[in-house]
């Protein structure tokens, strides 16, 4: 497992894309809090490293909840941004997460729900299928890797990318995430156990298939599953989600 990072870590960069590991609790994009965000950090990083005049272009391709850490790809040109956004739409850009949830999750499962967001509270809920026109479709595929002390280590592949999707769907299914103060039973000071561990995409210019892996930090509750997390890098390609 990796150390608990406090600033974004750049894993790959060229003239077209930049892949980073986002620290937990850092915004992806700035909001009215004025807190530091990854997008602004990257613009400053590129401007300084390459001595660019004016504001550097960094295109936002996909998002991640503030408390969650893990892999993100950003575009460095408008062409790359457009092509990566299309990969998100067609699922060629694949985001896979690892989480620790409460209770014993099934070995293999798919969650298919309809989600509705309350903009005034920034809360998301599952709504009945007959109200689906008032919400958005949300699908994820999951495999449970291990059980320990009434908790499960679960790998998740997103088919859709909705706000708070994994947290809401897992809670609704009876498997709230460890440390989730918004949708679970997280306690003060706990860090949500959800991490963007794998990211696969095609380079928007060369077409090269690219895979990035970033394991979660060595903190609770991940340390309870140290052996399994350390082994995920080698077994993940053999995990069948669907």
Would you write up a description of this structure?
The protein has 242 residues and is of the alpha+beta class. The protein has a single domain, classed as Pseudouridine synthase, CATH 3.30.2350.10. It contains four helices and eleven strands, in the order ββαββαβββββαββα. The chain has helices at 38-49, 78-90, 165-172, 226-235; strands spanning 9-13, 17-22, 59-60, 69-75, 94-102, 108-118, 123-127, 136-148, 151-158, 194-202, 209-213. Strands 1, 2, 3, 4, 5, 6, 7, 8, 9, 10 and 11 form an eleven-stranded mixed sheet that branches. The radius of gyration is 18 Å and the shape is globular. The two termini are 26 Å apart.
Shape: globular
Number of strands: 11
In CATH, the architecture is 2-Layer Sandwich
Kindly report the average pLDDT value. 93
Low-confidence stretches: none
- What value does the Rg take, in angstroms? 18 Å
Percent of residues in helices: 10-25%
Tag the structure with descriptive keywords:
242 residues; alpha+beta; Pseudouridine synthase; eleven-stranded mixed beta sheet; 11 strands
List the helices and strands and how they pair.
Blueprint: E1 9-13, E2 17-22, H1 38-49, E3 59-60, E4 69-75, H2 78-90, E5 94-102, E6 108-118, E7 123-127, E8 136-148, E9 151-158, H3 165-172, E10 194-202, E11 209-213, H4 226-235
Parallel strand pairs: 4-10
Antiparallel strand pairs: 1-2, 2-4, 3-4, 5-9, 5-10, 6-7, 6-8, 8-9, 10-11
